[in-house]
Each structure stands twice: as C-alpha cells, then as structure tokens.
Amino acid sequence: MARANAAFVGFVLVSIVVCWAALRALTIFSLQHESSSHVVLIPLISIYLLYTERGRIFQVVRPSIIPGGTAVLAALVFYFLCAERLSTTGPGQSLTNVTLAIVLLWLAGFLLCYGTTAWRGASFSLLFLFLMVPLPPALLESTIYYLQRGSTEIAYLLFRLVGVPVLREGFILHTPHQSIEVARECSGIRSSLALFITCVLAAHLFLQTRWRMLIFVLLAFPLAILKNGIRIATLTLLAVYVDPGFLTGSLHHDGGFVFFFLALAILAPVLLALQKSERQKLGQNPVSPLKMESGLAPGR
Question: Are 21 and 114 part of one and the same domain?
C-alpha cells in the first residue's frame, strides 16, 4: 500500500509538471470566469473523499500494469493533441479538451497504481474530478440562456402572485416604477453550479439507493431556476417599495449566498424524506460520513 501511495503521488506530481502550462491556464480561467470558479476546489474535495473512504477503497490494492499503462498512454496522446491546440487557439473548447485529458490521465494513473478493485471502490471520488472540466462554450451558452429564461419566468409569476402589475418583453420585466433586464450576468450560473455540486455530494454521502440519488441531484436544476427567480423578484420589489439602491447595492452583487442557503433550506426536508424512505425500505440507518470513513458503507 505504501509503495502504491508513493507511486501515485509521484505520478500526480510528474503529471503536474508535464501539464503545468495547461493547469496554469485553467487556474487563471477559473479565477476570471464565474462559470468555472469552482474548478480549483474540485481536486481538493476529491482528495478529501478518497481520504475519508480509504478504509473501503483500499481493501485490495493490486497495480494494474497493462490496462493502466495503456490508459495512461492514451490519455497522454490525447493531452498533447489538445495542448497543441490550446497554445494556438487560447481558452474555450481547447481548454475544455485539455482539462478533460488531464482528468483522464489522473484516473488512468490511479488504475495503474492501485488496480481495478480500488478504482471501482473510488469511482465516485475519481469521477467527481470531471466537474473541474469547464463547460464547453456551446453548452455553457445554452445553460445560461435557459437559466435566464427560467428565472425571468419565475420572477414574472412571482410579481403576478403578489399583485404587482408587470409586463414582460423577452428578458425585460416592466413594473410601474422600475424596468429590469435579466441579463446574462443575472443568470446565476455560478450559484447554480455550486448548488448542483452540493446536491451531488449530499446524495453520495447521505443516500444509498441510486434512484433516490438521481432524484435529489435532478432537483438542483429546477431549484436553481426557482431561487434565481426569487432573487430577481426580491431585489426588484425592494428597489420599488424600499430603496432603488437595492438594484446596485451589496445584496445585488454579493448577496447570492443568501438565496443559495434558501435553496439548501428547501432541499433539506427533501433529503430527510428520502433518507426516511430508505430506512423504511432497507430497515437500516442512512449512510453517514462516519460510516464511510470506517469503511462500513453498504453496497449499492
């Protein structure tokens, strides 16, 4: 086990040196674009998951030389092909591809050093690394568009619900005293991705059956639109009836966490209900991080 650990740590360090230019570009990109602000945290979370579940993951460690070595070579070829395009075309689809290649390289390195049994046991922690891959530009634009569209619709319905006269023109909402545009920057893409990642982690840590996990994760999508629509409606109503400065103040620019926690408050009883249904169905307690750390998590 110690040799496998040393081999994998060495493999990762060498890969960082080899892929340094791409990793540096990815870090800069994540700091400059809110749609990728989570990227730098994903490897840290993955490492934490591997550590807390080590008792279950590393019960059988047997290096997989041929499959792992083949996968490493394939990932390296893919990386160098993508890195060449990154140096000539800059960020965008090329950065997505080169990051994907790095993730595949790390997954292949884990297989090489620890073997197939450990890889299967660590599959969630390893596949979680794919969340550090920036969304392809076309998919990102489509996601932002649907977030804008859904958030505008929710805000419009909330205005109607509370009796505020409102006229909708595309992404623009006209009220008697204020007109607002749900711009691209108001799509809530960063908090929506954070909510999705939170749901994925919570489903893994606290649920056991795959269909319940899927239901809980899928809830992140409509809830992301709902909480952003509530945010838009709340800020507009505060601007109309309290102070116009709410549309340009700190609650507008830095208050996204308030509505993020609102979404978590909505999700909490759903998670508890799913856990309760699992206890009734399986006749046992739900998974807890403590169980997973000690390697006692039941099979799925």
Answer: yes
> Each residue of 17-49: pLDDT tens digit?
999 999 999 999 998 888 888 999 999 999 999
Tokens of 232: 């838009």
Query: Domain boundary residue among 109, 134, 159?
Result: 134
Owning domain of residue 152? 139-293
Residue for token pair 């990386």: 79
- The strand order across the sheet containing 172-174 reads 167-169, 172-174, 179-181
Same domain, 122 and 143: no
Give domain status of residue 299, yes or no.
no
As given in the structure block, the two tokens for residue 124 are 């969630």
- 49, 125 contact by CB (below 8 A): yes
Shared-domain flag, residues 31 and 166: no
Kind and range of the H or E run holding 40: none
CA dihedral 243, 248, 249, 254 (to 10 degrees): 140
- Determine the pLDDT at residue 247: 60
Question: Is the pTM higher than 0.85?
Answer: no
- Cβ atoms of 32 and 102 closer than 8 Å: no
Q: What are phi and psi of 293, to 5 degrees?
A: -65, -35
Q: In this structure, are 117 and 231 located in the same domain? A: no
The residues that bridge with 109 in the sheet, in sequence order, are: none
Which pLDDT tens digit goes with each residue over 151-168?
Answer: 999 989 998 898 888 888
Over its C-alpha atoms, the chain yields an Rg (Å, rounded) of 23
Give tens-digit pLDDT for 211-253.
999 999 999 999 999 988 888 888 888 877 776 665 665 555 5
Final residue belonging to a domain, choices 114, 134, 154: 134
